[in-house]
Amino acid sequence: MDCIFCKIIAGEIPAKKIYEDDFVFAFYDIHPIAPVHVLIIPKKHIESVNDLEKGDVEIMGNMFLAAKKIALELGIAEKGYKLLVRTGRDGGQEVPHIHMHLLGGARLREDIGIMKNKG
More exposed terminus of the chain, fewer Cβ within 10 Å: N or C? Predict the structure, then answer.
């Protein structure tokens, strides 16, 4: 498979891992947009939210539990953090493997903006 996140999980591409369990793998984003920016990905390749099936409920639940554990470990749980999942091109998803951004360490804004039509 030619998925960059699957290659990170397999150890073929290095990443600064912060958490791993049977269901998910989490690592620091190489282009952070907040003081804390961690990507949480399922070990099972699922392209996007649109590809989720009923059997993926346990995986998705474990992604949220991993986010909670990481936020506590990094000391951002009390003040708050944002969890962001992008879906599809218009949603800003750049890698076709479902992933959750854990953002924190500062007061975060809500503006996402609308991109100009680029064709």
Answer: C
Q: Which two tokens stand for residue 78?
A: 């009390």
Structural domain contains residue 19 = yes
Concerning whether 101 is annotated as a catalytic residue, the answer is: no
Given the residues 31, 37, 97, 99, select the one marked as catalytic: 99
Query: Using one digit for the tens of pLDDT, what is the confidence trace for 3-55?
Result: 999 999 999 999 999 999 999 999 999 999 999 999 999 999 999 999 999 99
Question: Residue 15 in contact with residue 28, Cβ under 8 Å?
Answer: yes
Question: Does 63 reside within a domain?
Answer: no
Residue-number span of the structural domain to which 47 is assigned = 1-55+87-108
CA-nearest of 30, 52, 38, 31 to 97 is 52
User: pTM of the full predicted structure?
Assistant: 0.90
